[in-house]
User: Fold these one by one.
Assistant:
Number 1:
Amino acid sequence: MNQLYCYNLVLLIFSIQVIISTSEYLFSYQLFKDSGLISWEVNRFAHPKFARFIHRLGFNHLFSYPNYIFLLVFKLCIAVTIIFQLWIGNSVILLILLLALVSLLTIYRNYRSNNGADQMSGIVIAALALGKVASTKHSLDIALAFITAQALLAYGTSGFLKLTKAGWLNGTYVLEILKTSTFGNRKILDYFSKRIMLRFAASFIVVFGDILLSISVLFPPKICLCILLIGLCLHLGIAFVMGLNTFVWAFCATYPAIFYFSCKLYHQVYL
């Protein structure tokens, strides 16, 4: 796989993730009001050591409602513009830097409500921006390598930790998750409750799917691609059951980088 093509593909998928996640925030704009669950009046105490520094920079004003809504709209516009500029083949370096800055600001602003998708998104855009600023063949390789390493580490940590938990091995954690009000699904819960082997299979797929993804780069490209397709299906299934749709795009944005290094490793070792 071509290096620049891989880089642009990671950026494209990431931009789609930004559009989806930002649109969801805009549709739930009430959450950012002073009386909302993720108002700045609450979130600004997440980093008390930096509160005075943030205030001096004027971010308190920017992060407060309704100004923060305009920042989200700006972020959405940047992501859409990046996709358009990639389509027509124009340079996007300034747009990447802008998106990186705004993304890091929004991650800081919503610190208490961030999840794994937000953390991975911050890692991906920071690496993409730094790689593009240096603008050399090696800098892009380093950026893609960092993204790959972070993705493999995230999957490995998740999979091997689950492997030590009896609740994951016997399927009981699947039922516990489905019972929750945030990530639960009553219809699927009723279906799984009556079928022991089905919830055992679901646990097995999640645990060993994560582990397999964590070592996917070590396999030849065709096998690696199959593993990544399994990962995509895994994320789609989780998104359907638990509503974690942004995880699909945040983690799958790393897949081109993983596949790129699988191809590179294969050619260096076997050819």
Number 2:
Amino acid sequence: MLTESTVESMFREIVSAPNPTEETFDRAEDLLETELRDESPLRHRLTVELDELRSLATK
């Protein structure tokens, strides 16, 4: 299991890619699901952020 700091850095790197696709968002989601516990506040915060990014990308 990675540290929360490492997971957040990896998440930021994934979602900062220019012109993110659904595959990009799926990779970020997989990272959160595999590396952070369900009850993690960081997982909750990044999941909300990911949902917002997905919403913006579809507009």
Number 3:
Amino acid sequence: MNVSFTQILNTQEKKLAFFQNIVLVAIADRYVDKLESDFLVSVGDQLQLTEKDTLHIADNLKNLKFIIPQDGLQKSLELEMLVKMVLQDGIVEKREYDLCLEYTRQIGFTKEKLDELIAQSKN
């Protein structure tokens, strides 16, 4: 079953929630480097989000919380993208990892699943 990004994230609400979750991980270590920034822009472009669409996310960084999707496919996709974000700078920062782990547990997955995804994504 090959389902595309846009088929899973098929509403503006889902796209913004997905983007917000990725932003949360990007800012976890309190520094967004060029690779992370480029990745965020790339994801925003893929989701066809404008700067105006994402302004409320940027304006509320301190108050952001994970928005947990209901759909199983979306949960898996988001976790994979969060792991990609963590690995953008080649370093798994503790804060980033801990935040990913929090998300992983909130969607009902295990720490082992997260560690497995990180190991697979490094290869």
Number 4:
Amino acid sequence: MPANGKDADDSSDGKFKAKNKKTLTQRELSNLAPQERSKYLAYEEPPKHVAEAMAKTKTRLLEMKKEQKQSLKPRPIEEELDKEKHSKLIGQLKAAEARNRLRVMRLRYNANRAEEIKHLIACQPTSLKAVRLQALVPPYPENSKSGDNLDSMQRERVENILEDEKGLTICRDLS
């Protein structure tokens, strides 16, 4: 047993490396079947030129990985733009949610109000009083806006009539 307490199979970097129990000569190795030979060589140290090629490949792969990470990192300007777009989108979503909550509350209020008015109408002692209350207080508010239904020409005509104090515009003598 070695003095440092490690087995002979351990490499200098502390990792376990599997090795063949028996060593074969070159002649015995060439007499093996291809599968047995590949199994045997899998646990042997690779030749010097193969080890160098493996090391070069490993370093090349590490460099490629570093380059990919650097190319995938967003630039500070792009990152700020992404954050700004994200915050704008979040703001729009919050505004839409607030509008939806208001709409739902308005619909619920109108439905409750209509239900209460219908109940009041149904509780009237006579049908005449119920009809009168229904005419005065409709269950659903009328959505027809009492806005202006005149176009620009009609509006100009009405304004001319209103401004005419002597009544010359609408008073016509048929004589």
